[in-house]
Specification:
This protein has eight helices and eleven strands. The radius of gyration is 18 Å and the shape is globular.
Length: 273
Amino acid sequence: MSEQPIWRLLITPPADGAWNMAVDEAIAARAGRGDVLPTLRFYSWQPACVSLGRHQPLADIDLIRCAALGYDVVRRPTGGRAILHTDELTYSVAGPQTDPVLAGAVLDSYLRLSQGLLAGLEQLGLRVAKAPPSNRAAADAGPVCFEVPSAYEIIASGKKLVGSAQSRRQGWVLQHGTLPLVGDVTRLVDVVVFPSEAERTSQRQMLAERAATVEAALGRAVSFDEAAAALAAGFTAALGIELEPGDLTPAELDLAVTLQRNQYAAHAWTAKF
């Protein structure tokens, strides 16, 4: 009987947006080369941060309001729309495109990874499901990520609970996503640019109807540590892998420092679109 594949589990301290994105890409780049094991990482953000999709216009976000509220702003290496990262658990999965969990087309790996998310959330007592594969973001989709669940994203009572995005480049795969734990899921609307306050109000109401936190869906608060433990168990069971706790390697840290300085903290990258 063959042993289960070993993946590395990382739980890293809260960090700002540029560092979190740099670390995700550094792990993916090294894992894609086979220098480190495929990796499941859990992390959070300090300060709160608005992340833009890779090709999303920076003009979607009111930078003056962000500064007034103390929100950081960063551009992700993955697609999708804007997210406010606060009071949440963020997961990332990184590894080579040849790994059985990550192989195939984007939706193939999305489906596999969603099984891990589902299993973990069920361990918390949540009743969750996957959005149907027919779900796609429309060409005229709004600037807010949690407005509509995409294919295989996780929903609870019809509301989006986990938003995820993926990038596949240079032999590696990076998928990361956000699980709001507590708080007001409509706070992002405060810093999005709208033609009128009436449209802002409408967007806030729509988002409240279409997105949820774990606390709202479950009826009790769940801590970062409890959520991380449940998701780790879910990934292990659903994907048939063994998770081995580890740390970032010196090579990953060096690459992350370079990526943070030259890309994710650089205005040229943030204002690219």
